[in-house]
Write a structure and sequence with these properties.
Layout (H helix, E strand, L loop, with lengths): L1 E5 L6 E5 H5 L8 H11 L8 H4 L6 E4 L6 E4 L12 H10 L4 H10 L3 H7 L4 H10 L7 H11 L8 E4 L6 E4 L8 H4 L3 H17 L8 H12 L5 E6 L2 E7 L3 E6 L15 H19 L3 E6 H6 L1 H13 L3
Helix pairs in contact: 4-7, 6-7
Length: 320
């Protein structure tokens, strides 16, 4: 429904709808009037477009703090603006930089401006103007590249052609890389073995957090209550087993979905096929090393834990 109202600031008549009036609007004919009303009455609610209300104000003459030049600025910038240009702003920042002598010394030794402003948490142009103010000649990007290549440091280290360790394809590399791509890197068994060893080492030392599943916590609490000695996340070769009990006994707790319990899953997806294959390899590896491996399904632990308890006690007491 169309309603006629008078603007609260300029008293001009304007049209609005009933819903706008109902939700508390419809008091001003334009945003400019709302901003001017808020500016004059100190009401922050109508100051969103305050800059529009100040555009008709005359410009203000000011003097630059750095170079002393007179310049004009807009009214709403006059209270906080101190410099006539960005160059003067960066020169002011250069004057406030601590450790000026250390920065100049490092630059003369071969450090780049990019590296200096990253190490000292400064602006790049601030460092450049600092060097200019102290009369230090600034190197061009080309001169900096040549210097770093000659020093053999930084990302401009000299490139060299070398063959890939896996596919034999020649490629350029600045670092001591052996592979032309990430795909070739993960085809190398030595690299995979190193990554696996580092991961297992981090798990053992507690640096890599691995949360226990609910069924693992159930089995762990039962072992603690019955005072059975065990070691959680036991590393054996390239594999990591859930529980180790003295006299070469291992316990694995398998989730129904991820390890594909045959009671519930007849057709397996890619992830389940991969996990089943790894479980077989894991079992064969443990038995070839003389370990007795016992597996429990999630369904058995949740629904018939009494039978699982008996089997765990038999495994723990057998061979004592």
């Amino acid at each position: 429904m169309d309603i006629k109202k008078n603007c609260l600031y300029c008293q001009k008549e304007f049209h609005t709808d009933s819903y706008t009036v109902k939700v508390g609007g419809g008091r001003f004919c334009s945003r400019r009037c709302a901003s001017r009303y808020g500016y004059e009455h100190g009401n922050r609610k109508f100051l969103y477009y305050a800059r529009l209300a100040l555009t008709n104000r005359p410009k203000v003459n000011k003097i630059c703090v750095i170079c002393g030049r007179k310049y004009e600025t807009k009214y709403y910038n006059s209270t906080h603006q101190k410099y006539c240009s960005k160059e003067c702003m960066y020169r002011a920042q250069a004057q406030q930089i601590p450790n000026k002598e250390e920065i100049i010394k490092l630059y003369k030794e071969g450090h780049s401006i990019n590296r200096l402003w990253r190490e000292f948490h400064l602006r790049e142009l601030g460092v450049e103007y600092l060097l200019l103010d102290y009369g230090v000649p600034v190197r061009s990007a080309r001169e900096q590249r040549k210097l770093m290549m000659r020093m053999g440091t930084g990302r401009w280290r000299q490139k060299s052609m070398k063959p890939c360790k896996i596919c034999g394809r020649p490629f350029y590399s600045r670092l001591n890389k052996c592979y032309c791509s990430v795909a070739c890197k993960y085809k190398d068994e030595e690299t995979i073995a190193k990554m696996r060893d580092n991961t297992l080492k981090q798990i053992e030392e507690g640096r890599l957090y691995r949360s226990n599943t609910n069924i693992e916590m159930i089995v762990e609490n039962f072992l603690v209550q019955n005072k059975i000695q065990f070691k959680h996340q036991y590393k054996l070769g390239y594999w990591c087993f859930d529980f180790f009990i003295p006299n070469n006994k291992l316990i694995e707790v398998d989730g129904d979905y991820w390890h594909a319990n045959p009671l519930f899953f007849s057709e397996l997806n890619h992830t389940q096929l991969k996990n089943v294959k790894n479980d077989k390899r894991k079992t064969e590896y443990a038995r070839s090393r003389g370990y007795i491996l016992t597996r429990f399904w999630e369904n058995d632990i949740v629904n018939s834990f009494e039978n699982v308890k008996k089997q765990i006690l038999e495994v723990a007491n057998n061979g004592k």
